């Protein structure tokens, strides 16, 4: 990483990371500690997520990481105590695909985001705020269709579909509600900053499908979209719906964490929406890598007619940030799959 004296918040400063037990968030914490920052991670239950503190205490020494409880992020004042004395706030916490009803699924994300922003705005020491948005705040995958997306692109299509009249059912409705929650949550963040003019800089990160190393497989299992890879490994048995996930972009979770840290500390990254997309993939690309990495295991046959993600996104800025951490650029799909399978390949 670049010279610490020029960072927007100096090394050794305290950074709040919400949802610290999550797949992306745990890597954000890891990269922050690696870069010399102190971290206060929020979780819904300190009892259930005590392993997070144990993991980072063992890796970086006691006193660098602390765990605090925020049971309901949508409750008024949820983050007010957590933000005390912090110089930065990275808000990753979000419910993932939990509701078919937009009246339930969307407000909790919007209110949680606003609560984090309000808490940060009320703490004069906070100079930087990074919001984990989503690729779905900008676009939804559309196989074999050529289109472009940039910082001005919003997923209004998903918002319209999410708020359509009942019945509230079906996997597509659930996906639309999630996508709309991320779209409207991020829009609310930019509106807040524009109107309230807080004393911090806001950047947002829009990750696509995150894969890669799971820090604590015994506690996290195969979390988030790493679960997709494990399902493919097991020929989608019991998880047949995942077979129909469309081609899209992947990104290595450690690159995602680097983009977050860069958005927090690099002074020239201000007021930006960062497309955290590496390269497009489909299931057959991953099957080919599985066969190469694990030649003694039999995998399912290629899936016909998958199509390709042909979209063009403005992901160069995020990759530039990754390079500032001494990386050559986005981590390859093969290396990412190798990292992802560490948690289970040896046990099968």
TrEMBL record:
Highest taxon above the source species: Eukaryota
Q: Example GO molecular function term?
A: oxidoreductase activity, acting on the CH-OH group of donors, NAD or NADP as acceptor
Query: What are the alphabetically sorted keywords of the record?
Result: Oxidoreductase
Determine if Mitochondrion is one of this entry's keywords. no
Pfam families from the xrefs?
A: Epimerase (PF01370)
* Domain spans labelled NAD-dependent epimerase/dehydratase: 15-197
InterPro entries given in the database record: Epimerase_deHydtase, NAD(P)-bd_dom_sf, NAD(P)_dehydrat-like
Q: Which family does it belong to?
A: Belongs to the NAD(P)-dependent epimerase/dehydratase family. Dihydroflavonol-4-reductase subfamily.
Name this polypeptide is given: NAD-dependent epimerase/dehydratase domain-containing protein
Top-level taxonomy: Eukaryota, Fungi, Dikarya, Ascomycota, Pezizomycotina
